[in-house]
Amino acid sequence: MKILLAEDEKELSNALVMLLSHNNYVVDAVYDGEDALSYAQEIDYDIIILDIMMPKLNGYQVLSKLREKNCKAPILMLTAKSHVDDKVTGLELGADDYLTKPFEMKELLARIKALLRRPQNFNADILEFGDMYLNRDTCQIICNNQQVVLNKKEFQTMELLILNSKQILSKDLIMDKIWGYESDAEINVVWVNISSLRKKLAKLDSKVTIASIRGLGYKIEVGCD
């Protein structure tokens, strides 16, 4: 398996090359975005690893240009610790995964193996609404450099609200879509679920709200500043 590693910190790059070579990967190491783009366009790599902060062209620019050229190789982005916006931007531009610095070497190897198992047409799936993002792959809400994980019902409810953001969704409709027609659950589980989502949005200080429309149901909205 052949890997392109684009990382401008030479000490880190050398350590990664040694690790990957020891695990039987063939590695080409470059130290700026222009070389990364040139190598990636000339050679068919099994995986491309891009640091975001590189000279000449940053990781976003390289990623965007490669996807525009229909490059199908899985791309793993290396991001600064806790920069959630970096992750979201990379995923939206077509990255397959991200890893925050500092990271454990065994985690990098695990991510690489996971990417190699994915079908080539796999893309991270993100919904955007207002100032928040819903990552369908990880069931996370991302907002203001923070993230929270949703349970299955919370995720399904949030997804339903975003996809139908121009409509008011009744309790019965949400109940049927999320719990199913034959569920034994009481209708008040809808309110409990909505209440939990509101608390998580508030925790992220998001402008997104879930409004109660008296006698009709719920609607997702973006509040005013």
TrEMBL record:
Residues 124-222 bind DNA. GO terms for molecular function: phosphorelay response regulator activity; transcription cis-regulatory region binding. Residues 124-222 form the OmpR/PhoB-type domain. Keywords: DNA-binding, Phosphoprotein, Transcription, Transcription regulation, Two-component regulatory system. The modification 4-aspartylphosphate is found at residue 51. SMART domains: REC, Trans_reg_C. SUPFAM superfamilies: CheY-like. GO terms for biological process: regulation of DNA-templated transcription. GO terms for cellular component: cytosol; protein-DNA complex. Residues 2-116 form the Response regulatory domain. Pfam families: Response_reg (PF00072), Trans_reg_C (PF00486). It comes from the Bacteria. May play the central regulatory role in sporulation. It may be an element of the effector pathway responsible for the activation of sporulation genes in response to nutritional stress. Spo0A may act in concert with spo0H (a sigma factor) to control the expression of some genes that are critical to the sporulation process. This is Stage 0 sporulation protein A homolog.
